[in-house]
């Protein structure tokens, strides 16, 4: 197997399959029916997370987050870099956005 085949396999491994999405959706629906809707907005809350398996044993759950970083490009190359990153990291990157850099050392004039 060559390097290209390895990269393809690695990309497939990071994607969520349709079956996994269906399972996650079913779990969310069941939790909602039991009164455990996902907390997505509103005032901050403090609480405890108790995780029990069906056999009564406990387990630890981890919070998933989306890390981010900024990358500088040469002038007028933003679109090319974005397109390359989308192709190169397809299925591994949640989002790519072009943002303008603000020079915080400049004095703002009103």
UniProtKB/TrEMBL annotation:
It is found in: Nucleus. The keyword DNA repair does not apply. InterPro entries: POL2 (IPR029703), RNaseH-like_sf (IPR012337). Its cofactor is [4Fe-4S] cluster. Its main location: nucleus. GO terms for molecular function: 4 iron, 4 sulfur cluster binding; DNA binding; DNA-directed DNA polymerase activity; single-stranded DNA 3'-5' DNA exonuclease activity; zinc ion binding. The keyword Zinc applies. Coiled coil: none annotated. One of its GO terms (biological process) is nucleotide-excision repair, DNA gap filling. One of its GO terms (cellular component) is epsilon DNA polymerase complex. Keywords: 4Fe-4S, DNA replication, DNA-binding, DNA-directed DNA polymerase, Iron, Iron-sulfur, Metal-binding, Nucleotidyltransferase, Nucleus, Transferase, Zinc, Zinc-finger. Its EC number is 2.7.7.7. DNA polymerase II participates in chromosomal DNA replication. Belongs to the DNA polymerase type-B family. This is DNA polymerase epsilon catalytic subunit.
